[in-house]
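Treating backbone geometry as a discrete language has practical consequences that deserve illustration. No coordinates are needed to read the tokens, only the vocabulary itself. For completeness, the protein is quoted in full, as a sequence line and a line of structure tokens:
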Amino acid sequence: MKVGLIGCGAISEVYLSCSEQFGNFRIVKCADLVPELARKRAEQFHLTAVSPDELFADPELAIILNLTPPQAHTALNLRALEAGKHVYCEKVFALTMEDAKKVFRKAGESGLHAASAPDSFLGASQQYARELTDQGVFGRFFGGTASIMNCVGFVSDHPNIDFFFRKGGGPLMDMGAYYFSALCSILGPAVRVGCLGGRLDSERTCIAGKSKGKRFPVEVDTHMQGIVEFACGAVVTLNTSFDVRAHSNPRIELYGSRGTLRLPEPSGFGKSIFAFTEDAPRWEEKISPYGYGTITRGLGIAELADAIEHGREPRCSAAFAMHVLEILCAMERSCAEKRFIELETTCSRPDPMPRTVSF
């Protein structure tokens, strides 16, 4: 299945490198508002560089891979759907629920799919955690904790560091989708959130690299602590920050009636999980038996291509992505309004992945 890529920034190099792992799709053309970026990626990966207009009009392309900044996601997702193409979008699905609903409705009206990253919950480690959960190894989950980022932010090692402190950025919106995609895959949908927080500084300074000394405003909350109630009854606490110097919290721990599950950084795909159960009352490393532990980014596009071929809903569906987005938006709103927010959307747990894939 032929794919056209729009947005040739830093993350495109990762997608293009990883796409070589799969056999059911091929990225053949790329475009960017900055033509030099498209030409660079085309030369690097033997693609054809075209203009955005040419990309959307190309009848050979079945899927548009949207790797533009989040502020452009909605407009370009809609444009892809209007051009009769499926779309796979880098996280987050949109910046507001209103925009997400526009894309969701358009995809439904067009009979097309609007899938969205993150796809890391499809990876070998998280799927093994899902399998053990479904087998009842941990009993009924009733609580948990998630620690997102908790660092001083990207003040030294990213070419566009100010983006992370503008609207649409911050530790929650930048990384939260990885965590809540993992949690919703295991626990199911959330129903209510509460959050408090703020920002330590009104301005930041880049301390290294080409932008060293550059000062930029902080437009989003950079430290947030919250609580999320899931429909299954589990209550998960959250700590996320660009203001923390150091911490020793687990990335994700889930507490069940028969044991505890510890997950690694959820933006990874194949790292080990750890379990402590009443049958084995000590921490045990659980190495995933799934046969695609080395497969990483791009798994969601391959899964989408497979879903299109077999006429089914992709696991990284618009409905799932929209529910994850609402959790993030509701936490921001809760922080601003200082009250609990009841969620309007819901989702089904995506079907578990098979232990082997032939993508």
Q: What stands out?
A: The two ends are 11 Å apart (CA to CA). The first strand starts at residue 2 and ends at 6. The chain has nine helices and 17 strands. Residues 2-116 form a domain with the Rossmann fold fold (CATH 3.40.50.720).
